[in-house]
Amino acid sequence: MKLWIKYLIGALLGAALSFTISANSPAANSALAFITDIIIRFGRYIIIPLLFFSAMAAVNKLRETKLILKTGTWIVAITVASTFLLTLIGLISILLIQLPRIPITASRAAETVTLNAAEFVRALFPSSAFETLINGTFLLPAFLFACFSGGACTADQTAFKPIITLVDSLSKLCYNIVTLFTEILSIGMIAIMCSWTIQFRSIIFGGTFMPLILMLLVIFIVIAFGIYPAIIRYMCNDPHPYRVLYASLAAVIAAFISGDTNFVLPMNIRIGNESLGIKRRINGVTFPFFSIFARGGASLIVTLSFVVIWRSYVQAIPAENIPWIFFMSFALSFLLGGFPSGGPFAALTILCTMYGRGFETGYLLLKPVAPILCSFAAAFDVLTAMFGSYMIAVKTKMIEHHSTQHFI
What we know:
globular, mainly alpha, 16 helices
């Protein structure tokens, strides 16, 4: 059975199970929250070893074959371009379609989220390089250490060959563990979807946020079935661009339900290799980099959400403020590496605080729908990672195309 079918069945069972659990039962909700948290932790369990050993082996191979510069250029270009494109789509969509205003409430402000640039840089270079392998949330320090280590091993291929052989073996070991974990997680989807549906059900019955959710759904369909396949069709001369979307189904389902970009990273790597045929030397660097930096989905959500909040307070938006909204949402998305889940709402909180002028607590209007917004953002970001990695593999000729019948 295909992996995406297993995940879909798990999601449908979880949605059905949610109707047997009372949303007002503290004991049931507490137990469900505990189970969901364990499953998310299980999904993240192997991330750091897999990322470190895979990235180290990949960078070593790319530098050895003199593809490191070309690959790096494509990664950065796709990250920036995709984020710009998604932000622009979000801004144009919300400017063209005026959603109903959200009733202003007197909710109390929660603790303000901040992004400290100095602490961000310090986290990259802790007192010991081995400390980078401890944090399972912020992946950039471990990824950076792996890149340094893999690049350094090319200085003397003979002397460091045993190390690269060991690292490559460890990477394959972690990959085999991921294969097992991704199969087991199809069962875990039941609990995650059950929890997600209970939250979503209350939002549907409220009706306030349904126009916003429907707009995001339409935007997702347009991007997934139109824009991204068209880019692959013409950039890669691929007559069958929907193969990438088909391969991405399991990861998109998991990302949407969990709202966590780190949770789906091991799955992305497995799908990229076994379904799309992307070689490990590309897989090992593109997917971790995109998971950390290519957060265009978050940028789209923040841009669209801020305009919705604005119109809930004031009907007209001054034209001179639109570029500020666009570029601040765009810039904040690159600093969300430490927020694998909840990143869009954190960025929205920061944007409202930065703008001021009575909007400091405007993010509270969308707090009830925050999990759904983060789900859409994670789904957008997984699509970007899949289509982006496929494009890079094609451009660097590091791909072995597989028939769809052999997709996992």
